[in-house]
Amino acid sequence: MGAFALRATIVQAPEPGRFETVPDAVITVEDGWIAAIEAGGGGEVDVTIGAVDGVGSGAVLVPGLVDLHVHAPQFPQLGTGLDLPLERWLFDYTFPLEARFADTAWAIRVWDSLVPALLANGTTTAVYYGTTHVDATTALADACRRHGQRAWVGRVGMDHPEQTPEWYRDATAVDGVAASAASIASIRLLDPVGDLVRPIVTPRFVPACTDELLTGLGELAADTGALVQTHCSESDWEHGHVIDRCGVHDANALDGFGLLAPGTVLAHSVHLDDADRALLVDRGAGVAHCPLSNAYFGNGVFPLRRALEAGVKVGLGTDIAGGPSASLLENAAATVTSSRMLRDGVDIDVSAGERPRPDAAVDAATALWLATLGGAEVLGEPIGLLEPGRRFDAVALRTDRFGTWPEVD
Amino acid sequence: MGAFALRATIVQAPEPGRFETVPDAVITVEDGWIAAIEAGGGGEVDVTIGAVDGVGSGAVLVPGLVDLHVHAPQFPQLGTGLDLPLERWLFDYTFPLEARFADTAWAIRVWDSLVPALLANGTTTAVYYGTTHVDATTALADACRRHGQRAWVGRVGMDHPEQTPEWYRDATAVDGVAASAASIASIRLLDPVGDLVRPIVTPRFVPACTDELLTGLGELAADTGALVQTHCSESDWEHGHVIDRCGVHDANALDGFGLLAPGTVLAHSVHLDDADRALLVDRGAGVAHCPLSNAYFGNGVFPLRRALEAGVKVGLGTDIAGGPSASLLENAAATVTSSRMLRDGVDIDVSAGERPRPDAAVDAATALWLATLGGAEVLGEPIGLLEPGRRFDAVALRTDRFGTWPEVD
Fold first, then answer.
1. A237: exposed, middle or buried (C-beta count within 10 Å: 0-12, 13-18, 19+)?
2. pTM score, two decimals?
3. Is B300 within 8 Å of A405 when comparing Cβ atoms?
């Protein structure tokens, strides 16, 4: 890759609640890593972003967006079929669609549409659920490699005879663990150094997996050093189902199966309590907050401020296609609006004095932090902020599409 | 304009909750009006939309979107400054920005950015607040005419010595009524037939106006036959302020000033009660529901289903810049998500059994209806649906940007 220098105005969020602007920064990049950043730097550069005579007149550079939760095979149903509760939505819409990915050619067609769509939305890093199929999942990792997107890609393990259909599940827990091991090996062959594409152990969620599969996948993660992703306390139904089956909250159950570790990505986690949050902090596991999806399936707003104040690592996810948008920025906006709605309440028949939760609201700077550095810290990856020692992973964001107003403060 | 024919697949919502698709329709247009529509029609056409060899491969035709509530001068602060409650937001950010439109050249620069931005978002009809300035407001109407956007454009009347700043208000109620009368005359000169651009009487909202100005503007609307727009029961503060000052709810107060009539557009109306809804129905006034803005300033979700079931006319508004988006489709999506959040509640500390309001949710077909025909019916304008006898007012919506999946049901 060699070395190059570029000039751009950086806008980023080094911590929740704080924007940082670095005007006319000269960024020196060596072998993909940021070697130096000089604000207002002079000298020759190879490319200028945001200048009238450069690339993207009226653009700023922001860290690449990190989407922590994408169900890749659900892209064809994006924005549709959101009328059912989670447990029926899976059987009526989602499992039949995912089962089609036994056809690897169909899979590649979808991946070659999805990955560029996410890149066009600014998502330079994604954490993907594939399907139960090893070949389709490897093809997804290959699509990320070809299109240049940083990715964790997981073959989905699911074998529970009551919570999954006979025509779309691992035949046995042993088969499921073996298929996930094969998927890990296959993805690692694509990118032996793991610079861009890595496997991730992916039990769908507790309801869809037997104890044996969950235990086996926990062991597989420990044996291979791969990260783990799954869902946690997503909805009233899912949260209650795990309590009924395991006698403990979802987070505790996952911990018992060896699935909570540094870098574990827990989607949603809407219904955590204080003990759950403390457990996540202790294990170093993080949350993929998916605000648009939660409006459909979560039965409540994830108490984001409470999680951040407890020290839980949090980033954002689109949850394609439980969420109707492929844009992480739209989810960042929805993070702010849903936090405001949690603060003020939604029901005007409840008197104003009873509604407000004054501490719930977060601002746009926090949302950008979640979409970049917050997600990076969940994964333990040196991205999410433009500073020396991190990878050069950034997107140019146009700010001039319909006029800029420099005279407005 | 003459006659022409085009072929397109129509997708529209003739009533809440129902999509209608007309495949391969041949639409005959005469002098801007739809003369005939034939599904699967044969014969020669002048243009084909959505065909591989036509305009917009993979596009469908939908009725033009109707944005019932746009504060045109706030476009330069779109998406910023949403950290304060309404009553402080106005003084700290909004009134200083609007005051700048005394400079008509600056105004034209903003209008020539705003109007194309809304058109690019599919908004073919908009109901605008201008500023207190006659010239800038006339220039907005002229920008709509030049760019080809159907519009109602209102000079803002505001004269209350406590709720508006000395440097941005009508000097007296008499001056305010005179300026609004001049604005109406001036806009009517631009488009004497009123085919595209019309004036609208615009008292800012009750708190910003003296009784004398509100009464005078009610009389002006009656005398000129112009429609009326204002805000109604937007937030806890605004709703309570009118009760304190007038002793009745906002809707009653506006009615007493002669401002509720067929075609009156009442922005927000979050905090209406049953009697308010009945009054709106009786007077033929409608609501501009602005779900994204309400998340910031409304202190609750507008009970949309309740309004529709009471027979209140409802359409959608972006409320630029109280809402952070110029896209009415994004507001249509937010209509669905906020209705789901009203249904399920937002606070997980309230037990699941106490949270749900099962009747609150609306679907995507209802949201499209609101964005098109619902808005048209608020205004009494023959748009919002593609059928003979209405104006040909439509947008082509691309469906193929990142792949279409005809095999998915």
1. middle
2. 0.95
3. no
Q: What is the pLDDT along chain A (409 residues), one digit of tens a residue?
A: 589 999 999 999 999 999 999 999 999 999 999 999 999 888 899 999 986 555 556 789 999 999 999 999 999 999 888 888 888 999 999 999 999 999 999 999 999 999 999 999 999 999 999 999 999 999 999 999 999 999 999 999 999 999 999 999 999 999 999 999 999 999 999 998 878 999 999 999 999 999 999 999 999 999 999 999 999 999 999 999 999 999 999 999 999 999 999 999 999 999 999 999 999 999 999 999 999 999 999 999 999 999 999 999 999 999 999 999 999 999 999 999 999 999 999 998 887 777 768 899 999 999 999 999 999 999 999 999 999 999 999 999 988 777 666 555 4
Q: Give the Cα separation of A245 and A236 in Å (integer).
A: 14
| Interchain proximity B300–A270, CB inside 8 Å | no
Which chain A residues are closer than 8 Å to B402 by Cβ?
A: 113-114, 116-117, 120, 326
**Test mutation, A272, A302, A348, chain B, max B CBs within 10 A:** A348
CB contact under 8 A, B113 and A403: yes
Rounded to a whole number, what is the distance in Å from the CA of B389 to chain A's nearest CA? 32
Residue B169: phi and psi, rounded to 5, are: -165, 165
Bridge partner residues of B21 (DSSP): B11
Give the ipTM.
Answer: 0.93
C-alpha angle B264-B269-B270 in degrees, rounded to nearest 5: 165
Contact A300 B334 (CB under 8 A): no
Hey, are the CB atoms on B337 and A408 less than 8 Å from each other?
Answer: no
Task: Please name every residue paired with A266 in a beta bridge, in sequence order, or none if there are none.
Answer: A230, A287
